[in-house]
Fold this protein.
Amino acid sequence: MTQPTAPAAVHAPLRQVATNIYALRLPLPFALNHVNCYLLADQDGWTVVDAGLNRPEVRNAWQAAWAELGIEPHRIRQIVLTHMHPDHFGLAGWLQEQSGSPVLLAQREKEVARLTWLEEINEERAAVVQRYLHSAGATPEVAEVILSQQNHLRSLTYPHPQQIDVIDPGATIEMGGRRFTAIHAPGHADGQLVFYCAEERLLLCGDQVMQRITPNIGVWPTTEPQPLARYLRSLAELAALEVDLALPGHYAPLTGWRARIAELQAHHDQRLEVMYGAARAGATALEVSYTVFDYDRFSQHEVRFAVAEALAHLEHLVDEGRLQRIDTPAGCIYSQA
């Protein structure tokens, strides 16, 4: 088939990373200051993978990318989201408004997006959040930070998609003149999907594997049990894939696939030992996070991630029988089993 012809020069933050695939680096107002979204060209239109936050500079960046690639929005035929975190989901509704195209998301991620972004918090949901804050041993000050940041992030996901269609693990999806298989890659997000083209050893890997940083593996009010165990199993499964090029949600494309996975596995082995050492004499998740992470460098946004990551590792140590969890009026205390 005849392939689309790209302009001769494509400048950052838009760049070609493979035949018919362009990476668009979009700004984020956080310490992690960007997210990678992708445009994949087909004979009959374009696929967008992930969306960015709904902020004016991000909408402007999308429109500039369309102009540079000669894309009319109605030629975007599908918007595929790897997961529901706001930097990947946030602008999906606006993109759908511009293009009229379907938004595709895993069933579990659709459900979590509904609970987190789409619905107002009712009394039942508020009680779930309060139990979560109690389990972490969050002080009133930290609880206020977590709640205010959640409300702020929610504001960056408007307008919401009018309709979200489900894509299931194992499904085949055509993007960029290729056939990709959707693979369930949990841990960072319960229902995250990555997309693998075996013929070209090419993977759109979302936030599961990235250069320079490890994805946050956390316990949140909506998280299914054992996120760290599920993440480590996913890494082992993904390491079996033949991957020459992986395109992540943040930072540069990956070529040393298995070596990077081995580094992530070693990181969590080490982090578990540090968490165990911080908790063995008895501590809440918040207290452990103060020991493990450098709060002096953290914005309010990052405080949430530190607490959630501490909870995930402490719960993993409980599941392994190395720590015990004791519920007290001040929150859950973790100590040597």
